[in-house]
């Protein structure tokens, strides 16, 4: 999506330490232009903020909708069809996938959209690039949201998707890069090796390893050892593991990072209540308080800022809560 200078400046003024630029929904040329624009804005504001380039994961996403969003009712049946655009979701919902759907979906599969705000069940594979689904609950269907299911998770190649973009780094040299769905130390080490192979020793970005799957949790210790920082991605973890244990795992990962002298960052649904106002819900307040008490080095705001008309205000609220809790902590 195009960079909005006003919003970026607002986040810098509010004290954002890192600005993330994500590959989803944009071309290589657009991502390069976005990073260059953000770099110029950082320089203009004389900020010390760094750029994090979030390398692409292998995700299957919805295409563009005429209205951007569509209301969905409980039990509604829809056709999901290969395509980049649909004027009306009641006609069909576009899915940016040209492969045979049966490689990824089967009748009876439960599919989550986005962070789980909507879920549906596959009723029938109509053709190689068309299937019928039934939504389990009412909600809002949002364009470009990703699809996830346990079976789909096993079919995706995140390492290949990330490696395919490493050659783009030479034009922008971001200080940090993030790897999605890291499942082993070998993944991190291979990316380091390839960067050194391409750029020699002149460019060594810090690597953020995102733990957001069961293999990531199982191999957390080796991943922490290999990465420069670890991101605990609660959104996809809730869809690929037992969601009831996510916060316990958050505490475990933060504890492991402290023991190993590495920094942990917690991501997803941290202050989403601030999308509708600047007073956080008491649940969000408790959540962020616990993140600080867990010893996390930082938080990763995404929808809280990207979908907010005043992203800087959310950052200020977050920093105020973090400062208040930190002052009261007994070391």
Can you put this structure into words, describing what you see?
There is one protein chain. 36% of the residues lie in helices and 24% in strands. The chain is an alpha/beta fold and 331 residues long. α1 (5-13) crosses α2 (28-44). The chain is globular.
Strand content: 15-25%
What spatial order of strands do you see in the largest sheet?
Answer: 1-2-14-15-16-17-18
Number of strands: 18
Estimate the mean pLDDT confidence.
94
Contiguous low-pLDDT stretches (5 residues minimum) are none
Q: H/E series, N to C? A: HEHEEEEEEEEEEEEHHEHEHHEHHEHEHH
Number of helix segments? 12
The share of residues in helices is 25-40%
User: Helix/strand/pairing class, anyone?
Assistant: alpha/beta
What's the N-to-C terminus distance? 43 Å
Shape: globular
User: How is the main sheet built?
Assistant: 7 strands, parallel
- What Rg, in angstroms, do the CA atoms define? 20 Å
Summarize the structure.
With 331 residues, the chain is an alpha/beta fold. Helix content is 36%, strand content 24%.
Feature tags:
seven-stranded parallel β-sheet; alpha/beta; single chain; 331 residues; 18 strands; seven-stranded mixed β-sheet
Topology at a glance:
Layout: H1 5-13, E1 18-22, H2 28-44, E2 50-54, E3 60-61, E4 64-65, E5 69-72, E6 77-82, E7 85-86, E8 93-95, E9 110-113, E10 118-127, E11 130-135, E12 139-142, E13 146-148, H3 150-153, H4 158-163, E14 176-179, H5 185-199, E15 206-211, H6 214-218, H7 220-226, E16 229-233, H8 234-240, H9 246-260, E17 263-267, H10 282-294, E18 298-300, H11 303-306, H12 311-328
Helix pairs in contact: 1-2, 1-12, 5-7, 7-9, 10-12
């Amino acid at each position: 999506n195009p960079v909005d200078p006003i919003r970026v400046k607002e986040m810098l003024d509010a004290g954002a330490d890192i600005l993330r630029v994500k590959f989803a929904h944009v071309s290589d040329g657009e991502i390069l232009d976005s990073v260059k624009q953000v770099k110029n804005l950082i320089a203009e504001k004389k900020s010390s903020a760094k750029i994090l380039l979030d390398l692409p994961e292998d995700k299957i996403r919805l295409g563009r909708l005429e209205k951007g969003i569509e209301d969905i009712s409980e039990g509604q049946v829809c056709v999901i069809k290969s395509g980049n655009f649909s004027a009306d979701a009641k006609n069909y919902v576009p899915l940016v996938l040209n492969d045979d759907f049966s490689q990824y979906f089967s009748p009876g599969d439960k599919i989550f959209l986005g962070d789980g705000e909507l879920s549906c069940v596959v009723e029938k594979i109509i053709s190689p690039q068309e299937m019928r689904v039934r939504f389990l609950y009412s909600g809002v269907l949002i364009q470009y949201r990703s699809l996830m299911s346990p079976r789909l998770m096993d079919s995706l190649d995140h390492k290949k998707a990330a490696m395919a973009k490493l050659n783009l780094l030479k034009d922008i040299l971001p200080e940090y890069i993030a790897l999605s769905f890291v499942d082993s130390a070998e993944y991190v080490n291979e990316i380091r090796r390839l960067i050194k192979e391409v750029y020699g020793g002149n460019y060594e970005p810090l690597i953020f390893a995102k733990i957001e799957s069961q293999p990531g949790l199982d191999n957390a210790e080796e991943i922490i050892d290999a990465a420069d920082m670890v991101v605990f991605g609660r959104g996809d973890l809730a869809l690929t593991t037992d969601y009831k244990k996510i916060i316990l795992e958050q505490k475990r990962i933060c504890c492991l990072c402290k023991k190993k002298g590495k920094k942990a960052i917690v991501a997803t649904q941290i202050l989403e209540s601030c999308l509708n106002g600047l007073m956080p819900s008491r649940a969000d307040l408790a959540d962020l308080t616990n993140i600080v008490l867990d010893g996390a080095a930082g938080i990763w705001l995404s929808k809280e800022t990207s979908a907010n008309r005043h992203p800087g205000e959310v950052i200020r609220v977050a920093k105020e809560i973090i400062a208040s809790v930190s002052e009261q902590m007994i070391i």
